[in-house]
Amino acid sequence: MILIADSGSTKTDWRLIDEKKQIHQFLTQGINPYFNTTEQIAGVLKSELISNIQYPISNIFFYGAGCRVEDKKKIVELALLEVFPNSKIVIHSDILGAAHSLCGKNAGIVAILGTGANTCYYDGSNIAENRTSAGFILGDEGSGAHIGKTFIKAFLNDEMPKDIADRFVARFKLSKDDIIDAVYRQPMPNRFLASFSKFIYQNLKEQFIIDLVANCFHQFFDKHICKYEKHKEVKLSCTGSVAFYYSNILRAVALEKGVSIDTITETPIAGLTLYHLGE
């Protein structure tokens, strides 16, 4: 039995491939070793996943945000070993998972645009170049957290049309002090900021919102995609809720930058499952 996970800061998609090659799917909250301890991750697995697993698991392939460096991988590995002690565990970064899902064995530039953001140049086998995303405070341009942060800054500084601000207050009933508290004092501020992406999307008919999202994507291309040497030679493929739901604006900005976009998917998990089925 093979268990595959694609984990971001907000949610984790799981797929189980059983002995008959049948696929079972599960969903848990996000797992990120930059924000979660081994104990917290094990708690999530025990409370949200293990009751759905009725089979002994031989191999686990975990692709996760924050799983690029060895010490962070170890945090996740120890949690998985606690819950699945007899399984062989392989942990990769979420960006390699996106590359396997979107490109398979072909070269291309790959981007994740969800709660956070990450990009790489994938040579068809390995990640040949990976630009630092720097997280939601210092980077993550084009992500849900970045778009949400840009929107919230405009709200706090009275830099948005009054009707949009009024709709925002009526919807969320958050004061400016509530927002400051959530960002600076409460856990998971990146999720908090990214949570406004749905409201932003629902108001996409407003020119202010269109311009705001487009500006975030311009920063994404300028600071990340266009710095890859082959950005005009190979195609860009993207995955993540932000890439998927704002795809029209993303494609328009890419066209302005001379970048050709191939595939955009909401999540990488389907492509990852097919990748491991074909191994």
Q: What's the name of the CATH homologous superfamily of the domain at 2-98 and 269-277? A: ATPase, nucleotide binding domain
Poorly predicted spans: none
Strand-pairing-aware structural class: alpha/beta
The helix count comes to 13
Using the alpha-carbon principal axes, give the shape.
globular
CATH topology title of the domain at 2-98 and 269-277: Nucleotidyltransferase, domain 5
Average pLDDT works out at 91
Biggest sheet character: 5 strands, mixed
Distance between the termini: 14 Å
Counted beta strands? 10
CATH class of the domain at 2-98 and 269-277: Alpha Beta
Secondary structure: helix percent: 40-55%
The CATH architecture assignment of the domain at 2-98 and 269-277 turns out to be: 2-Layer Sandwich
In angstroms, what is the radius of gyration?
Answer: 19 Å
Element-by-element helix/strand order: EEEHEHEHEEEHHHHHHHEHHEH
Strand content: 15-25%
Strands of the largest sheet, in order across it? 3-2-1-4-5
Task: Name the features.
10 strands; five-stranded mixed β-sheet; 279 residues; 13 helices; alpha/beta; Nucleotidyltransferase, domain 5
Descriptive report:
The protein has helices spanning about 40-50, 70-85, 95-105, 135-140, 145-155, 160-170, 175-185, 190-195, 195-200, 205-225, 240-245, 245-255, 270-275; strands at about 1-5, 10-15, 25-30, 60-65, 90-95, 110-115, 115-120, 125-130, 235-240, 260-265. It has about 280 residues and is an alpha/beta fold. The protein has a domain at about 1-100 and about 270-275: 2-Layer Sandwich (Nucleotidyltransferase, domain 5), CATH 3.30.420.40. The chain has a five-stranded mixed β-sheet with strand order 3-2-1-4-5, with helices on both faces. A five-stranded mixed β-sheet has the order 8-7-6-9-10, with helices on both faces. Helix 2 links the parallel strand 4 (about 60-65) and strand 5. The longest helix has 17 residues, at about 205-225. It is globular and about 55 Å long. The mean pLDDT is about 90.
